[in-house]
Amino acid sequence: MSAKEFRTGTVAIVGRPNVGKSTLLNKFVGMHVAITSRKAQTTRHRIHGILTDAQSQFIFVDTPGFQKQHASGLNRVLNRTVTQVASEVDVIVFVVEAWKPDERDEPVLSLLPDEVPVILALNKVDRIRDKAKFAQVLAEWNARRDFAALVPVSAEKGTQVKALLDEIRRFLPVAPPVYEADEFTDKSERFMAGEFVRERLFRLLGEELPYSTAVVIENFEQEGNLRRIAATIYVDKPNQKAIVIGEGGQSLKRIGTEARHAMEGMFGGKVHLELWVRVKSGWADNEAMLRQFGYE
Ligand SMILES: Nc1nc2c(ncn2[C@@H]2O[C@H](COP(=O)(O)OP(=O)(O)OP(=O)(O)O)[C@@H](O)[C@H]2O)c(=O)[nH]1
């Protein structure tokens, strides 16, 4: 492979909430950079996962979940991000669930720009039993848009993920790599720290908490191999604060312990983590506050 043929480009992974975008991204980069959970819309930041192999460098832009039913300020910001990201990349991977074209995919489909090639990834094929019906689903999707390719995958099992990667590669421009091969994300440790707290929060309390929770890293200091991190979990209502803290502080303690262990594994050093919970009502509707929380 000569340097002249090396390909580098950006890839947006789009799709409505819960279709498996984060799982796919994690599979691609082989590392746990974006959080996954059963709860819809847990990915709010634009995360760059990077995969470099002998022939190419894929720079993945993970886009936020997409929900039309709640017209809050948060969703307006999310929708803007999805369109903006989609028009700036070399190729788009549009992730849907494989069993049937779903009307909830329509808002995302309608936002995809015409000038960027779109690969349809039909995810969760591990749950497909009826092959004949699946052929019909493929035909239906084909009729809806001129996709650059249609690839059935299972992000969770890894089935066909390599085939999907090969399809994506075809659309990356010939260019030298932008990032060093061992970089997996362009976000700082500070950002990752916030992601770990958010992940544990959703994992532990996902069923009880609404989407209106944000994590802000207030302090991040490094002394030798010790990192001192202070984070605030913002909730909308006092009763949510009580849920996050839990009986006798049990929940908050568990979130803190698990997040700290995850950080220590990732950063390769000791972490001292301090967690606070604060009520800031209406934050999901206030665009200035959203910017403060890093939701561009
Ligand atoms: N059976 C099966 N489940 C999958 C597959 N890929 C993802 N899932 C599950 O689908 C759920 C949603 O996955 P995520 O990766 O969090 O989905 P997402 O699209 O990033 O969701 P948002 O962040 O809400 O936009 C999780 O429970 C995953 O375990 C797959 O290939 N097969």
UniProtKB/TrEMBL annotation:
Keywords: Cell membrane, Cytoplasm, GTP-binding, Membrane, Nucleotide-binding, Ribosome biogenesis, RNA-binding, rRNA-binding. CDD domains: Era, KH-II_Era. Pfam families: KH_2 (PF07650), MMR_HSR1 (PF01926). It is found in: Cytoplasm; Cell membrane. Residues 205-281 form the KH type-2 domain. Its main location: cytoplasm. GO terms for molecular function: GTP binding; GTPase activity; ribosomal small subunit binding; small ribosomal subunit rRNA binding. NCBIfam families: era, PRK00089.1, small_GTP. This is GTPase Era. It comes from Usitatibacter palustris.
